[in-house]
Structures are given as C-alpha cells and as structure tokens.
Hints:
The protein has a domain of 122 residues: CATH 3.30.1330.70. It is built from 3 helices and 6 strands, in the order E-E-E-H-E-H-E-E-H. It has a 4-stranded mixed β-sheet, with helices on one face. It has a two-stranded antiparallel ribbon with strand order 1-2. Helix 2 links the parallel strand 4 and strand 5. It starts with 12 loop residues before the first strand and ends with a helix.
Amino acid sequence: MSRNMFLDLTGATVRGVTLEAPPKGKHGKKRAKKIKPPSTVYPGGQVIAEFRVEGRAVPWKVSIRKRGQGPATNPAFAVWQKVVRKAAVQAMAGRLPHSGLFVMHAAISIVRGGPMPDDDNVAKGIKDALQGSIIVNDNQGRGQEVVYNPDAAESFAFIRILAVDQEYVNRRRIAIESFA
C-alpha cells in the first residue's frame, strides 16, 4: 500500500452536514489564503517617519554560502539591521505601516578616516529593516537618496521616509526622461 493514500469524504454526510471539497488552485493543491497585515496609506507628501540610528551604517552584501550549510550573514550587518528596525518601531509609535509608495532619504555620518560604504547597498539594508514596521514591502519604494558626511565626530544615520503619490512618480519620470 502507498503511504500517500487518503480517504476522500467529499459529498459524505456527517451529523447532518454534507462535506464539500476544499477549493483547489493550480496543480490541484489546496489554496492557502494570504493574510495581509493591517496597514494604511498615508497621503502623498507626508513624512511617515524620521529617526536617528546610532552607529556605523553597514552595507548589505551577497552572502557567501558553503555547500550543506545555511546562508552566511555578516554579523555586523545583522546587528545594524536590528538597531534600524528597533528605531523604526519606536518612530512609528504604534501606527500602522504604510502600504503605498514612498521615497527614502538617508544622511549617513561616518567618523573621519573610515571607508565609504556603497550607497545602494546601505539603502537596500535600510529598506529591508523597515519592512513590517514603517513600510509593508520594500518594493513600494520609488526613490532613494543617500548622502554622506565623511568628516563627522561620530557615526550615525538619519533616516526619513516620505509618502508619495503616483503624480510624484510621473513628474520624476518625466524629469529623468528630459535628460535623455
């Protein structure tokens, strides 16, 4: 006998209730309902959150994985992301995350003499840390600006998340196309 056999009770009556077949998706598998977390859409132009994160910004980088082991993550990056996430939760003060479009502005201050991290990878790490607290998903981002102050007395990041609407996105696209 096969271990994958099961008893189909579709149409059977149990205690006066007729059993129905579960809804099927592609490939005949049961569909699981996606539960969306509660969120809200803030009006365009509104600052959703701004906060300061102490410590040196650590850029995201591709993890190196050895065969048979899980993904290797940079411990300093994981710690910095937790600090960003904690500051983001405090900045939201119990408000729901934004489910609309947004832009991110980050001002990174680095102690004199330190190497400059890659701005795209710093922004990627920040957006990943903000998921679930300030934004629902980082693919809602429609722009980012990362500026550096390389001569600071201390290392920190000041992060501002701004809600934008489709009109902003269209104006930005037109401005970029005018350069081409």
